[in-house]
Structure formats: C-alpha cells, structure tokens
Design goal:
- The chain is α/β, with parallel strands linked by helices and about 350 residues long.
- The protein has a single domain, classed as 3-Layer(aba) Sandwich (Rossmann fold).
- Helix content is about 35%, strand content about 15%.
- The chain is built from 15 helices and ten strands.
- Helix 3 packs across helix 5.
- The longest helix has 17 residues.
- The protein is globular and about 60 Å long.
- The two termini are about 25 Å apart.
C-alpha cells in the first residue's frame, strides 16, 4: 500500500480539477493536508489520516480526519465530543466506530470546539457573559461542518452525504445542527459560511433533549418531583443552586444573573438552542440512545437520564420525523423494534 503522504498528490489534483465547483463559480483554494500515521489500529483498512486541520480562527477550531482508500467521493460522518461544553477532546471518538465507517468507505472526522470557561461555585465573581454561552460552541460545530463541505474536493467527500454523531454535549450539538434551519449565509464575505449546515442523519448518545434549560423542569419532573423537598423545588435555577451549578447555568445561557434568564433577549436565545422546538418533519432522521445513569451522581443523572431521550423520541413522533430510540433505564425502558444500531442507522442514511 502506498504511503499516506504519497496520496496527497492525487487529492490535490482532484481538488485542482474541481476547484471552481462552487455554486457561485468562485475558485476554491486547495486544502493542504499533512498526513501522518493513524493513532488507532485500522484493522487492515486502507485510509489516510490528517490531524489538527484548522477550520477557523479560534484556538480549538481543529479537526482530525480519516479518508478511506475508496473510489469516488465518499460519504462523511463527523464526531462531536462530550464534556459538558467545558472539557473533552476530539480524540475520544470510538476506534471501533471509526473502523466500521472506514470499512464502509465512509470518511470519519472528529472536531474540537470552543469551551465555556465557568467560574467555580465558590467564586463571588459573576460569569463572563462575553463568551456567548453554549451558542459559541454550537456555532463552531456548524463552521467545522461548513468548512469540510467547502473543501469537499480536497477531502474527496460527497458534500450531500454527511451525518453527525456525538455523546452528551456532542450529542446535543449534533441534534441542534440536525434540527436547526440551514445556517448557510449566501451573502457572507467568508465563503465557508455560505455552505449549508443541513445533514442526512444524526446520532445522539447520552443526549440532552434541549439547551433551553428552563424546559428541563418538565422533562426531568418524573425524577425530580419525588425529591422536590430535598432539592428545594423542581425548577432548574433552584436545582442548579442546590448542586452548586448556578455559574454553569448562567455561563451556559450567556447571562450574568438568574433574573437575566427570564429577559426577552434570553428567551430568544433559548429558543435558538431549543432542539425540540426547532425540530420538524424535514430535519435529519435521529438515532438516540441514553444509558442507565443510576442515582450515584445527581448531576450526571440530570444531564443524561433516559427521560431526555424519551422527550426527543416523543417530539420526533409528534412532528413526523423518523427516529430510532433506546433507553436502558429499567423504569423508562425503550427499545426500537428494529434493533438497529448507531453505525447501521447512520450508514443507511448516507449511502
């Protein structure tokens, strides 16, 4: 098999042959990729690997990508890591999933994105509001997708066959992109931002149902109501205060005080990050799987409980969007009759 670096030339020639394929006819620059040895065992599958490809100006605007040795433009899946939007890294993508996609002649990318800087619960300072809240992280994920679409010729991918998947925060980010109206801005001076953000399918593991956190009161009610006296209530600001997570709540929503959450401006902000409210029948089909969280870690329970997956499934059924859903919690057990797994679901929608 030829060295991955030798494969750079064919890719560049492919790009040069197609560098004027933009919808506006504007020539697209060649994306230079520095190939290196893959950090995982590829199991005999031929693929080239490039690490830390820059997709934007922010420090963490980087992605890694595996390009399978297959004929013609390939489909693409993008992994978005978890970590509560305060941590995590692109290298957390499952090696088993990567190999399975590559064996199916599907390229695999994994992205980093800007993280929230949350003051500790014991600090008196108010959270910095100029971070832009969770929307900053979500917009980074959108830009990464647009960047890969813009450079589809260099990457040898089919821009019409793209799926997203992630865990926890990455699951929510995938849902947000899958449900949001197209963020393409045709008049933007940055040609990357003119690209579509619509995708063919979304996989969400241990997801949250929405990033309008005030809506969590109703979603989480089955598990919070029995402990309302202990928690001090079932509303999200009260629960956050009880868990020492008020600064996280405020930073996440981009406000300086609990009172600001209820402002008209923040209501509009919350609507823009409400994956449930954004969902309609024309969105990307959804695979969702939330696991048994147990009761040992209250924050993990609230962030990843199966009731989030149930809310996603219920909303998808309501609007007529195809979904496959699983919840492992014994009390809220849900299993799709198809028995279909994550990779099979995504591959079915991008082949």
């Amino acid at each position: 098999m030829p060295s991955p670096r030798i494969l750079v030339l064919p890719l560049l020639l492919l790009c040069l042959a197609a560098c004027s394929d933009g919808s506006d006819g504007t020539p697209r620059p060649v994306l230079l990729l520095d190939f290196s040895s893959a950090p995982i065992d590829l199991g005999g599958t031929g693929a080239s690997y490039a690490q830390d490809v820059r997709y934007g100006p922010a420090e963490r605007n980087l992605f890694d990508i595996y390009l399978p040795d297959c004929d013609g433009p390939t489909a693409l899946v993008i992994w978005i890591h978890g970590g509560g939007f305060t941590g995590g890294d692109k290298d957390s993508a499952s090696a088993d999933y990567i190999r399975e996609f590559l064996q199916a002649c599907v390229a695999h990318a994994a992205i980093n994105y800007t993280l929230l800087d949350v003051p500790g619960a014991d600090q008196d300072t108010t959270p910095a509001v100029n971070q832009g809240g969770v929307l900053t992280s979500l917009q980074d994920a959108a830009r990464a997708l647009q960047f890969m679409r813009y450079h589809h010729a260099s990457l040898g991918i089919d821009p019409q066959r793209v799926a997203l998947y992630g865990a926890s925060a990455g699951a929510g980010a995938s849902l947000w992109l899958g449900n949001h109206d197209d963020l393409a801005d045709p008049g933007n001076p940055d040609p990357v931002l003119r690209e579509s953000t619509r995708v063919s399918a979304v996989g969400a593991l241990a997801t949250q149902a929405t990033y309008d956190l005030l809506l969590w009161e109703d979603i989480l009610l089955p598990i919070t109501l029995p402990f309302a006296d202990l928690l001090g209530g079932t509303d999200v600001p009260t629960i956050a205060a009880g868990l020492g997570a008020t600064n996280y709540l405020l930073t996440f929503l981009g406000v300086a005080s609990v009172e600001d959450i209820f402002s008209a401006d923040n209501a509009a902000y919350r609507a823009n990050v409400d994956m449930l409210g954004l969902m309609d029948a024309g969105d990307a089909p959804i695979y969702v799987h939330n696991f048994d969280t147990g009761f040992g870690d209250p924050l993990n329970l609230f962030l990843h409980h199966g009731v989030h997956a149930l809310a996603v499934k219920a909303r998808a059924d309501e609007v007529g969007l195809h979904s496959v859903a699983y919840v492992d919690d014994e009390e809220y057990l849900l299993a799709d009759p198809s028995g279909e797994g994550l990779t099979s679901f995504l591959l079915r929608h991008i082949r």
